[in-house]
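Why do we bother with holo predictions? Because pocket geometry can differ from the apo form. Keep that in mind while you read this record for magnesium ion.
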Amino acid sequence: MNVEINPNWHQRAEQAHLPTRAFIGGAYVDAVSGETFDCVYPGNGRIIAKVAACGEADVDAAVISARKAFESGAWSRVAPAERKKVLLRFSELLLQNREELGLLETLNVGKPIANSTNGDIPSAANCIAWYAEAIDKVYGEVAVTADDVTTIVVREPVGIVAAVVPWNYPLSMAAWKLGPALATGNSVILKPAEQSPFTALRIAQLAIDAGLPAGVLNVVPGLGHAAGKALGLHMDVDCVGFTGSTEVGRYFMQYSGQSNIKRIGLELGGKSPQVVLADCDDLDGAARSVAAGIFANSGQVCNAGSRLIVEDKIKDKFLEKVLLQAAALTPADPLDPSTKLGSIVTEEQLSRVMRYIEDGVASGAKIVAGGNRVRQDSGGFFVEPTIFDGVSNQMKIAREEIFGPVLATISVRDFDEAMTVANDTIYGLAAGIWTNDVKKAHRAAKAIKAGVVWVNCFDRGLMSVPFGGFKQSGFGRDKSIHAMEKYTDLKAMWFAH
Ligand code: NAP
Ligand code: MG
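The structure, written out:
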């Protein structure tokens, strides 16, 4: 699947219909307050839409509609095979509309149009289809008991799920929640990030077109401290599936404690190490992977491999190869199908990235590639792929999540120091290790405290494999059958004979 050779994406962008109203109870509606917030195209810095700013009243309406749909059984109690048909049609509609949805994604977040149309949208569709296929393959249990009783253990949908998602992969991250939550029969209220509401709003209608009953999927765009907080504190929301920063993850824990002890799943930030050992015989492959691991999506990736931990005897040779990879990546027009590196999502995020770069320099690390804002005449928010050498793991650029295309290179003496440095972080989302020594590969895979460890690869993913973090990268897993656990409750039913 590829984008057309030379479609006029700029013209299509001018003509695109941008969805701006909330979606509650099967219909598009304005916010009760009538308020809106601005959406900016980060490729040129211009305001392109004013979107309904939902607050408590809108969240209340969405929860009422979601609860009504749930209790009606129109989705929660229909045969799994029926739910499967609807979700497969929904997935198909995402694919059929992938150019429109890809364009909406690029207009919201400035990622290259080729990536959004060929990557983000098909991957979201694949996720929905995977859970559709899984619906009637997950069985309950008959527990082992004495003979005078039969005990059946089943999974029931929790009820109302709030999916609160970030802007870096807006539709994919939403799909990671919608797939397992809808497949298991829940009603969902989706709160997209304020930077990226378009695809969430558009797919709400596609879900209805696919046959999802009204009220099962509601979308409340709005600001985090209004719409997000109202969902977190709502007494009739049973579960929150959250992806975002560790800081906001903490709030959701508090909201839960302050309200109804709703269940929370947290997929948070990271500062993932990419460890390269001197025995690795494919340094070219490793360099390609290290560069892709930090520069893809302009580094705005939760599992971005932002710390390169390399044995000092190969450091210079290896860095040289990574530099060549970085040099081939120039930020360019997100609407040009040949662009590989787009913009940063907002001016605010761009300033944050630039402040980290300044901080790296001030703390004594050396910039060996990039470091500058570019394409300023476009009005957009672009920054070069940036590489620091001479970084100590105590520096801020090695400790804090930058969420930008900035790689921190840390030299280590040997394997043991590499493991110590890799684990010296509050995060534990993912890690990569490059080595030809099978024993070191296994030792590293066990030693690294992270939810995902890639050996001689990085950023591989499949729907069949769980994804999520250790430590302050959160808890609970997206993807795979395990994600269905988050959105269901175990019930044990005892039948005495
Ligand atoms: P964020 O600021 O934490 O926002 C995530 C979501 O929470 C947004 O919908 C946001 O709404 C909402 N929110 C913000 N403040 C809130 C509050 N006080 N109460 C309730 N909701 C609130 O994250 P982001 O800036 O969108 O995304 C970047 C972060 O996401 C990074 O830290 C990254 O590592 C993480 N991430 C993790 C994964 C993973 O799977 N582990 C994947 C992708 C991203 P607003 O947009 O209106 O603020
Ligand atoms: Mg935010």
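The domain at 273-462 is CATH 3.40.309.10 (Aldehyde Dehydrogenase; Chain A, domain 2).
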